Known about the structure:
Chain A has 69 residues and is α+β, with helices and mostly antiparallel strands.
Amino acid sequence: MSATYHVAGMTCGGCARSVEVAIKDAAPGVESVTVDLEAGTVTVSGSADDASIETAVDDAGFTYGGRAA
Amino acid sequence: MSATYHVAGMTCGGCARSVEVAIKDAAPGVESVTVDLEAGTVTVSGSADDASIETAVDDAGFTYGGRAA
Lengths: 69, 69
């Protein structure tokens, strides 16, 4: 299972890595995290729920924008 | 009280904000956080201990490098 989310505020590879690490650390059940900087999206595979992703993104200082698709 | 720490991996304003938010959220006693992107340092005022700062920086996906001064 995977889902893609809008995440605003990521502007470089450091931002991307930050969001990736935050989601992996904070959301149980996450298997992989892929950031698309240009699209401003993050694709998460695994069994994490949307609320965990939102909390992880917000805590890392970026803006969660819900499911992209 | 304030202390300045080396933090590697911050390359843009998004990174800076991420580290700032992570430290403010994770470390009790923090009053303010100031990031110097060019120097690669973060100055924290308040009563937070070094270990809390280190954990917050690492969890945000950046590299803690100890006290700068």
